[in-house]
Amino acid sequence: MQSTQKKPLTAFTVISTIFLLLLTVLFIFPFYWILTGAFKSQPDTIMIPPQWFPKAPTMENFQQLMVQNPALQWMWNSVFISLVTMFLVCATSSLAGYVLAKKRFYGQRILFAIFIAAMALPKQVVLVPLVRIVNFMGIHDTLWAVILPLIGWPFGVFLMKQFSENIPTELLESAKIDGCGEIRTFWSVAFPIVKPGFAALAIFTFINTWNDYFMQLVMLTSRQNLTISLGVATMQAEMATNYGLIMAGAALAAVPIVTVFLVFQKSFTQGITMGAVKG
């Protein structure tokens, strides 16, 4: 029976561990500061030296957030935009990626090259045409003004094409011999294989849409249609700012996004890992 020997503790291991611990603290500290600040009174939030933990926790900031502002409406707007965009992006990107990966047609490579080129374009470049189109459709200052421009996400098509490359062509040919149509072939044969990528894309899309402050800022103007991110930004006054109230709004806005990532973290990492390996 072989005795298990512990690996010697090297200087590299110690330094890398300390470095990773410092990075962990660096990333976690903003969340800690927002969470604790949400339960502080205004004098405590601006105290110097800072109060690292609320000595007299209060729910006043959350009460003001709900009473003085339509925070629940803002939260619903954010959830609705993120969920609908996630569903539509996943549906269109999975179908488009499957077609680009497994179907052969004239101009296929050119079309895929256009998607790759679109990934390199900053959103600000296409903003003016998007605003003109949204105004022409008559949906400006509605939630759909944020949702519709995000549906054709080039990264989603690229990601699902990479996953669809792993679908064996023999399975698709067998399904066609058995009499399956294109929709049934995709749903019954292709989709179970690309499901990890579908889950990863869903998380990507939800997080990206939730954090898309710039598009929301341009497309939404009325107070009732704001998202939680925009609503929290409007609470910053010119002369005086209630930092406890803003931190309460920021804490509320962070809850869904952190929950989604923690719940679906396994699917997210599995999807990214599988997408990195072909065959």
Characterise the protein shown here.
By secondary structure, this protein is mainly alpha-helical. The protein folds into two domains: 11-64; 70-237, MetI-like fold (Orthogonal Bundle), CATH 1.10.3720.10. The protein contains 14 helices and no strands. It has helices at 11-37, 42-45, 60-68, 71-102, 108-120, 127-137, 144-151, 154-164, 169-177, 182-210, 213-219, 228-234, 243-263, 265-275. The longest helix is centred in the first third of the chain and has 32 residues, at 71-102. It is globular, with a radius of gyration of 24 Å. The two termini are 39 Å apart. Residues 75-264 form the ABC transmembrane type-1 domain. This is ABC transporter, permease protein. Its main location: membrane. It is a multi-pass membrane protein. Keywords: Cell membrane, Membrane, Transmembrane, Transmembrane helix, Transport.
Can you give me a brief rundown of this structure?
The chain is mainly α. 71% of the residues lie in helices and 0% in strands.
Number of helices: 14
Mean pLDDT: 83
**How many domain units?**
2
For the record, what CATH class of the largest domain applies? Answer: Mainly Alpha
Q: What is the distance, rounded to the nearest whole angstrom, between the alpha carbons of the first and last residues? A: 39 Å
Organism: Streptococcus infantis X
Subcellular location: Cell membrane
Pfam family, one: BPD_transp_1
Main location: membrane
Fold topology:
Layout: H1 11-37, H2 42-45, H3 60-68, H4 71-102, H5 108-120, H6 127-137, H7 144-151, H8 154-164, H9 169-177, H10 182-210, H11 213-219, H12 228-234, H13 243-263, H14 265-275
Helix pairs in contact: 1-13, 3-13, 4-7, 4-8, 4-10, 4-12, 5-8, 8-10, 9-10, 10-14, 12-13
Domain ABC transmembrane type-1: 75-264
Family: Belongs to the binding-protein-dependent transport system permease family.
Protein name: ABC transporter, permease protein
